[in-house]
Write a structure and sequence with these properties.
heterodimer, A: alpha+beta, 4 helices, B: 127 residues, alpha+beta, five-stranded antiparallel sheet
């Protein structure tokens, strides 16, 4: 059975994520960040930021509420028992700072199949409260035996 | 930075409870990352690292080489195999080219001599 490609192009309702200072610090500690811009308000302010700066990969945190509904959409039809995260790309714009509100919209970019393996590609576009695009993510999930 | 330069190597050993802390920090509570029994039941050797945590280590090597979080413009990775807690992760990278103020870095994360992130490419702004 080939993969169902009907969901290609489908978009989901945007989510809004309020970026908290302590969440940035918690994330920064978990990934081993030592740059004081992520951990100390004084250091971030001394560098000209209004509050602590999110590490670039914090994109995984503010975009995940938007990615979830797309991954679990029955119309996309991913078999989770067989899914692995195959690849990831992020392109970053202006830095994300504690206090920002990030809106993320996810689209099904592509669904394809090669040699019985399904490739499910999602795009997330995240913008801040000023309308700047802070991150565009391309999420590739692979499902073995999908077809 | 110029073509052929290596970025500083980064080594980090995720401790036994790292995946639990990262699950809380990221919101990804998939039991394959935090439940040893569950992971074994589904045929894994044990709890495995979150791919996005490992990608964050690759990102950290780039921002340290580039001089801060603003320097990382793009990062693209492929995940391969499984990362394991309590095994050292080594991130290395080489500048492929520098063009229009941006260094393209080819980078990899290895554990026990095997790539767990490969074919990764970063763009770092260089002044």
């Amino acid at each position: 059975m080939p993969v169902n490609t009907a969901a290609i192009g489908k978009s989901y309702a945007p989510t809004t994520y309020a970026v908290g200072r302590e969440k940035i610090r918690e994330y920064a500690y978990a990934v081993g960040e030592t740059n004081p811009l992520h951990l100390e308000v004084q250091a971030a302010r001394a560098a000209g930021h209004s509050d602590v700066v999110a590490p670039p990969m914090f994109a995984a945190v503010y975009s995940s509420p938007a990615i979830g509904p797309a991954l679990f959409d029955p119309e996309v039809g991913i078999n989770f028992a067989l899914m692995v995260h195959g690849g990831q790309e992020f392109k970053w714009g202006p830095l994300v700072i504690a206090g920002d509100e990030i809106e993320t919209t996810v689209t099904v970019k592509d669904i394809s199949e090669r040699s019985g393996t399904g490739f499910y590609v999602f795009e997330s576009v995240s913008t801040n409260q000023d309308g700047d695009t802070v991150c565009v993510g391309t999420w590739t999930n692979i499902v073995r035996g999908a077809a | 930075m110029k073509a052929g330069d290596s970025i500083p190597e980064m080594k980090v050993t995720p401790d036994k409870y790292l995946t639990v802390r990262y699950a809380g920090a990221s919101g990804d509570f998939n039991p394959i990352h935090i439940d040893e029994e569950f992971a074994k039941q589904v045929g894994l050797p044990g709890k495995i690292l979150h791919g996005l945590w490992t990608m964050a280590q690759v990102a950290r090597a780039q921002t340290e080489a580039g001089g801060g979080p603003h320097s990382l413009r793009r990062l693209q990775v492929q995940f391969r195999g499984m990362g394991l807690p309590e095994h050292e992760v080594t991130v290395t990278g080489t500048v492929y080219e520098v063009r229009d103020g941006v260094a393209i870095v080819h980078t990899v994360a290895e554990q026990d001599g095997k790539a767990i992130i490969r074919n990764a490419e970063a763009e770092i702004a260089v002044e």
